[in-house]
From TrEMBL:
Similarity remark: Belongs to the acetyltransferase family. ARD1 subfamily.
Originating species: Coptotermes formosanus (Formosan subterranean termite)
Residue ranges annotated for the N-acetyltransferase domain, each copy included: 26-172
Catalytic activity of the protein: N-terminal L-methionyl-L-glutamyl-[protein] + acetyl-CoA = N-terminal N(alpha)-acetyl-L-methionyl-L-glutamyl-[protein] + CoA + H(+); N-terminal L-methionyl-L-asparaginyl-[protein] + acetyl-CoA = N-terminal N(alpha)-acetyl-L-methionyl-L-asparaginyl-[protein] + CoA + H(+); N-terminal L-methionyl-L-aspartyl-[protein] + acetyl-CoA = N-terminal N(alpha)-acetyl-L-methionyl-L-aspartyl-[protein] + CoA + H(+); N-terminal L-methionyl-L-glutaminyl-[protein] + acetyl-CoA = N-terminal N(alpha)-acetyl-L-methionyl-L-glutaminyl-[protein] + CoA + H(+)
GO molecular function, one term: protein N-terminal-methionine acetyltransferase activity
Function description: Catalytic subunit of the NatB complex which catalyzes acetylation of the N-terminal methionine residues of peptides beginning with Met-Asp, Met-Glu, Met-Asn and Met-Gln. Proteins with cell cycle functions are overrepresented in the pool of NatB substrates. Required for maintaining the structure and function of actomyosin fibers and for proper cellular migration.
Descriptive protein name: N-alpha-acetyltransferase 20
Coiled-coil blocks: none
GO cellular component term of the entry, any: NatB complex
Domain of life from the UniProt record: Eukaryota
EC nos: 2.3.1.254
Length: 193
């Protein structure tokens, strides 16, 4: 649990938090990388360190950590750019906000940031996968302009496996919004490109 001082400082920004109240930093500086990774990745994440390292190596521009002025990690987002032709898109691989800092608009800020990166890369859309049971996240993405493009059956392995929604938001390059015409039928994970 964070000390009360840190919580008090960031409780109620209204309008939602912006980059002047929470510093968005790219973890490109090696000296910071160790601290942040140990805090976020090793203690709080379901992914292994090598998974994150791979992303950092390939898509450092798609990796942002939100840090409070006093140094707490508030949340992070990581993603990548992939696909060919009109399937060239930005992808959100992980988005997490620490429970102490939720409902401050931080996830929305991180998503806007990733969309901006994708716009600069001339991507047609941004997509992400979310568990069909994760109603909080699904509602948030809908509020941010994402639609359910398709259902991916048993995308998440577990006991039992769980379906995913593949959600998308068209970017400015997709003038005719072709990327966000939902598929009628669900697909299997092996059909996802
Ligand atoms: C989902 C998650 C990233 C949201 O982060 P957040 O910083 O609290 O989200 P924001 O404050 O930017 O919320 C933006 C909007 O989403 C909706 N929303 C977010 N959390 C909500 C909640 N718990 N209940 C209802 N609506 C919610 C609201 O409409 C909110 O806007 P508002 O506060 O002005 O009403 C965070 O809850 C989290 O890390 N969850 C666990 C990890 C996870 O599920 N990640 C997504 C996996 S794909």
């Amino acid at each position: 649990m964070l000390p009360p001082k840190a919580i008090r400082t960031y409780r109620s920004p209204d309008p939602p938090i912006h980059t002047d109240t929470c510093r968005l930093i790219c973890i490109g500086a090696p000296i910071r990388r160790t601290d942040e990774m140990s805090a976020i990745f090793l203690n709080k994440s379901k992914y292994g360190l090598s998974f994150y390292m791979q992303y950092l190596a390939h898509w450092p521009e798609y990796f942002q950590v939100a840090e409070s002025p006093s140094g707490e990690i508030m949340g992070y987002i990581m993603g990548k750019a992939e696909g060919h032709g009109e399937n060239w898109h930005g992808h959100v691989t992980a988005l997490t906000v620490s429970p102490e800092f939720r409902r401050l608009g931080l996830a929305a800020t991180l998503m806007t940031w990733l969309e901006d990166v994708s716009e600069k890369k001339r991507a047609y859309f941004v997509d992400l996968f979310v568990r069909v049971s994760n109603q909080v996240a699904i509602n948030m993405y809908k509020r941010l302009g994402y639609i359910v493009y398709r259902t991916v059956l048993e995308y998440y392995s577990g006991d039992p496996d769980e379906d995913a929604f593949d959600m998308r938001k068209a970017l400015s390059r997709d003038v005719k919004k072709k990327s966000v015409i939902p598929l009628v039928h669900p697909v299997r994970p092996e059909e996802v490109d």
